[in-house]
């Protein structure tokens, strides 16, 4: 039986998920109850599901892109388009 390696996880997020997560973070910070009630939550995900998606987003390289976009005052969609992600 093989033991799992300590390889770093690489998450591939869809552009719509990156935009979803970044929009909710901008609007609500870490308030997952408010995120559940947000109109952008069209799939009616529960707080636990959104929390999991946010964790994956924050562990992905796209979170650094989000922080850079926020620092530059540019929309995340524009930065993703410049990087060829969209």
Descriptive account of the structure:
The chain is mainly alpha-helical and 86 residues long. The protein has a domain at 28-82. Helix content is 59%, strand content 0%. The longest helix has 14 residues, at 15-28. The radius of gyration is 14 Å and the shape is globular. Pfam families: Nop16. This is Nucleolar protein 16.
Short description:
This protein has 86 residues and is mainly alpha-helical. The chain is 59% helix and 0% strand.
What's the structural blueprint in terms of helices and strands?
Elements: H1 15-28, H2 32-37, H3 47-59, H4 62-72, H5 76-82
Number of strands: 0
Q: Identify the overall geometry.
A: globular
Largest sheet: number of strands, sense, barrel closure: none
Mean pLDDT: 91
Termini separation comes to 41 Å
Helical stretch count?
5
Rg calc:
14 Å
The helix fraction, in percent, is 55-70%
Q: Given the helix and strand composition, which structural class is it?
A: mainly alpha
Beta percentage is under 5%
Pfam families: Nop16
Protein name: Nucleolar protein 16
InterPro entries: Ribosome_biogenesis_Nop16
Organism: Heligmosomoides polygyrus (Parasitic roundworm)
List keywords for this structure.
86 residues, Nucleolar protein 16, Ribosome_biogenesis_Nop16, 59% helix
């Amino acid at each position: 039986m093989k033991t799992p390696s300590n390889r770093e996880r690489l998450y591939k997020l869809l552009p719509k998920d990156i935009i979803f997560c970044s929009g909710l973070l901008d609007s609500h910070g870490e308030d997952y109850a408010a995120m559940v009630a947000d109109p952008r939550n069209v799939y009616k995900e529960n707080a636990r599901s959104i929390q999991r998606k946010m964790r994956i987003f924050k562990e992905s390289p796209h979170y650094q892109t989000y922080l850079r976009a926020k620092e530059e005052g540019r929309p995340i969609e524009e930065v993703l388009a410049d990087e060829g992600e969209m």
